[in-house]
Amino acid sequence: MIPDAAGKTNSSESDPERLGRLLELELIHKRAEWKQAGNRYRAFRSAGFVFLFLLIAGTLLAFLFVFSRVNEQRANPRSSDNADVAKP
Fold it and tell me: Which pTM does this prediction carry?
């Protein structure tokens, strides 16, 4: 009976150590998953900022083009408008 009791104490002593190692491995695995998820989120957020920047830059360029064309038309009236005024 004594050897059985000794075997039980050894297994009970190794169980907390084994559980601790398993818990540590699980936490290491979860940390790795969290880092990967954080990297994906960071990349998605960066892509969103790049898209927003390109959208704003494109809008500003379009406004610049439109306003320069309007100013150009105001500075140089059409020649057909001048010809219509001179005929009557």
Answer: 0.52
